[in-house]
TrEMBL record:
It comes from the Bacteria. Coiled coil: none annotated. It comes from Microbacterium allomyrinae. The keyword Hydrolase applies. Keywords: Hydrolase, Metal-binding. PROSITE patterns: PHOSPHOTRIESTERASE_2. InterPro entries: Metal_Hydrolase (IPR032466), Phosphotriesterase (IPR001559). Pfam families: PTE (PF02126). This is Phosphotriesterase. Belongs to the metallo-dependent hydrolases superfamily. Phosphotriesterase family.
């Protein structure tokens, strides 16, 4: 198993959220947010992750789910866990009207949104209202809408906003030589086609949410890995009632990809939220499931330490490393 003292970033969870707030929940009196309590809960969760052999957590919240960049920096300093922030937008229903309505005739332009993402990748993380930290984002994170997501009364429709966000993510990633992580929903191919149109190489695209039972039944993890994408099985610890495969099925997928010579194109994570204020998640306050549960089960099922090092070490490291993008 990877230890926190191993080379590079050590054990990396590529799809987690440190802190998430349902937009508006922080403004109502019944949700009094105690920052001291929040910090302590997160410190304990991150310390447990570190003690299990973890080294790095990628916070996939982006700009619109309540990210607190200063809190992330302080937690990293106190716990010794590297926290890599993401830029980008969460689900369309989390994106504020500044980006979606009357900023211009048709809403904020793709290039303007891309510039916001790019500057977070190259200049530093935004801190409301006009500050910028020295720490930069490490990846662009975007989320595809599901059919069950709410249709909000926006000047532009949800589909239009989502298309612009996906295109902006690709443009920003190309400019900053970063990767894009896209959490897919009901129509993964539609989101991926837009990224390809914008010239983002498939090997710089992480496709999250592929341990959904319907995607597994359709053979999508194997098909996308064959095409060169990085496959994200990022719901370790989630119940099958939420539509995800169980632990045994997830392990079989990973072992099958290694047997097919595609082991360097898959990552695992749990999509946990350290502290959530009304933001939906099935895994809260626990970043240890992958190291405490998945890793031993993977080895018991026939996986090797070397494969685990690739899965939790060298592949996430490669994703987070800036590289030259052709074209």
């Amino acid at each position: 198993m990877i230890s926190a003292s191993s080379g590079g970033r050590g054990a990396v969870l590529l799809s987690e959220s440190i802190y998430a707030v349902l937009p508006g929940a922080d403004l109502v009196p019944e949700h009094r947010i105690d920052r001291v309590e929040t910090f302590e809960r997160l410190r304990l969760a991150l310390t447990e992750f570190r003690d299990l052999g973890g080294r790095t957590i990628v916070d996939m919240g982006g700009l619109t789910t309540g990210r607190d960049a200063e809190l992330l920096a302080l937690l990293a300093e106190v716990t010794g866990v590297e926290i890599v922030a993401s830029t980008g937008f969460g689900p369309t229903w989390t994106v504020g009207s500044h980006f979606t309505n009357n900023v211009s005739d048709g809403g904020m332009t793709v290039d303007r949104i891309a510039d916001i993402f790019r500057r977070e990748l190259t200049e530093g993380l935004l801190v409301p209202t006009r500050e910028r930290l020295a720490e930069t984002a490490g990846i662009v994170s975007i989320t595809q809408s599901a059919d069950t997501d709410p249709e909000l009364p926006l000047t532009r429709g949800r589909a239009s906003i989502e298309r612009d966000t996906i295109r902006a993510a690709a443009r920003a990633a190309r400019a900053a030589r970063a990767a894009v992580a896209v959490r897919v929903a009901d129509d993964p191919r539609a989101a991926l086609a837009l990224l390809v149109e914008e010239g983002l190489p498939v090997e710089r695209t992480v496709v999250l949410g592929l341990d959904r039972a319907d995607h597994v039944a359709a053979g999508l993890p194997q098909a996308l890995a064959l095409e060169g994408y990085i496959v994200g099985l990022d719901h370790v610890g989630w119940p099958i009632e939420r539509g995800y495969v169980d632990s045994e099925a997830r392990i079989r997928i990973v072992l099958g990809l290694f047997d097919a010579g595609l082991g360097e194109r898959v990552v695992v994570s749990s999509s946990a939220i350290g502290v959530s204020v009304e933001y939906p998640s099935e895994v809260s306050g626990d970043f240890g499931a992958v190291l405490r549960e998945f890793a031993p089960a993977f080895l018991a099922a026939g996986g090797t330490d070397e494969q685990l090092d690739i899965l939790l070490g060298s592949t996430p490291e490669r994703i987070l490393t800036r590289t030259t993008l052709e074209g």
